[in-house]
Request: fold
Amino acid sequence: YIFFYAPIMLLVIFSFSGDKLVGRWGGFTFDWYQEFWNNEQLTDSIWVSLRVAAVSTVVSVVLGTLAALSLERFKFRGQRVFDALLYLPIIIPDVTMGIMMLVFFAEGIELLDNVLGIQLSKGIATITVSHIAFNISFVSVVVRARLAGMDQRLEEAAMDLYATRWKTFRYITLPQILPGVVGGGLLALTLSLDDVVVTQFAAGPGATTLPVFVFSLIRKGVTPMINAVSVVMLVASLVLVGLSLLIEHLRPDGPVSTGKT
Reply:
């Protein structure tokens, strides 16, 4: 705990330092946070990160949940291959994933231009697609863990009582796996907001996320504003964790939380 939290405490403390050197205390000040909010490029990168994270999280949660349901509740030809391929984005290095996306978008954009005459360029859309590509696997793993611990006889009992598959999913399965879906969504949101490597390969002019912008600032020279930005990102992560714990705490017990009998 000391090794982990001591650097965090120092980061928070020196984000309020008035000295221009990162590791030297120069009196208490909010100037670096003010400079953070007044930096137009920085605020633009925040909005880009939020837009990409919101869209990629929603799509990843839907596709990841469907993938988890198909693997845990159905049997089909090629299931093992599909299961193995679904884990690849988790296993392969980020650099490899980034290069794959770079080649994919380069070939795809050229193909659209030559065949359909549609001119596209790398930007927010390509970053979003890249984040969806690796977030689906993480959501699927979390939801599958929740499905594995669920009593499948509840679904069978609902269908024995003439419930359709959709009603069984809506009133029985979904309330049971909802903590896993929410947890997978928050994990996808966090990964999207924090990603640097894949985003650098997929980004284009005018589409810079906050982590990529911070990384570019570090290469130019570390200033206490970096501390302020890091503290803001840290607080945002803690808020997401707190929301996850709150949702888990407020979730009604029992297989059905809709109030229907």
User: Anything to note?
Assistant: The chain has a mean pLDDT of 80.
